[in-house]
Amino acid sequence: MPDKLIAVILGCGKFAPSAMNIQLWHFTVVTKREVLAMIDKEVKTVMVTETDDYSRINSANSAYDTFRTVPRAIIVSGMIAIKYGESDSANAVENMAIEAHSLDLGGCYIASFRCAFLGANSEKLLKLLQIPEGYEPYFAFAIGYPHIKPIILK
Ligand SMILES: Cc1cc2nc3c(=O)[nH]c(=O)nc-3n(C[C@H](O)[C@H](O)[C@H](O)COP(=O)(O)O)c2cc1C
């Protein structure tokens, strides 16, 4: 996937509205599949301990991928100390999802990756992803090419 497309999508995320226009968010573009796979592995170590069937079944399913097998993902982290960091991050992801669709790309809004930061290797992952101190990864947008073109009803 060309970096140019990622840059356009990222730009739309950064234009999302934030409470008090504070824009205290941090975007991490993950371009290495092995990093996404590492996060997925961590997610599964936490999912296996959860009480709902969906999490427990998928934690043992090798075909289940937290990032839906995409080549790239953008993680949006918000500052923990501010009141609306989580909703600001959600707005950014939604903006990116709409833009990706307009570029004929596929994408998926992801929250389940957060489990990775509840596990034993949380600090290691935060460091690897260079998430700044005081920020928490809230949502991600997984970007790829769709297998099928969605039918849009006019
Ligand atoms: C806050 C939020 C978190 C989500 N987390 C995940 C997730 O972790 N994994 C996933 O496959 N889809 C996730 N989704 C996507 C939804 O399950 C659903 O597929 C999507 O909202 C439907 O989009 P569509 O109407 O474009 O098909 C999330 C959506 C939202 C709004």
Give the topology, please.
Layout: H1 3-14, E1 25-30, H2 33-47, H3 53-59, E2 72-79, H4 85-102, E3 106-110, H5 122-128, E4 135-144
Antiparallel strand pairs: 1-2, 2-4, 3-4
Helix pairs in contact: 1-4, 2-3
The protein binds flavin mononucleotide (FMN).
Describe the overall structure.
There is one protein chain. The protein is an alpha+beta fold and 154 residues long. The chain has one domain (3-144): NADH Oxidase (3-Layer(aba) Sandwich), CATH 3.40.109. It contains five helices and four strands. The chain has helices spanning 3-14, 33-47, 53-59, 85-102, 122-128, and strands spanning 25-30, 72-79, 106-110, 135-144. The chain has a four-stranded antiparallel sheet with strand order 1-2-4-3. The longest helix has 18 residues, at 85-102. The mean pLDDT is 95. Flavin mononucleotide binds next to strand 3.
Q: Could you tell me the strand content as a percent range?
A: 15-25%
* CATH C-level category: Alpha Beta
Bound molecules: flavin mononucleotide
Principal-axis shape: globular
What would you say the CATH architecture is? Answer: 3-Layer(aba) Sandwich
Global mean pLDDT: 95
What gyration radius follows from the Cα positions, in whole Å?
16 Å
Q: Count up the domains.
A: 1
Major sheet, described briefly? 4 strands, antiparallel
CATH superfamily: NADH Oxidase
Name the helicity range: 25-40%
Number of DSSP-assigned strands: 4
Major sheet: order of its strands? 1-2-4-3
Q: Output the structural class.
A: alpha+beta
How far apart the termini lie comes to 29 Å
| CATH topology-level fold name | NADH Oxidase
Order of helices and strands: HEHHEHEHE
**Which blocks of ≥5 consecutive residues have pLDDT under 50?**
none
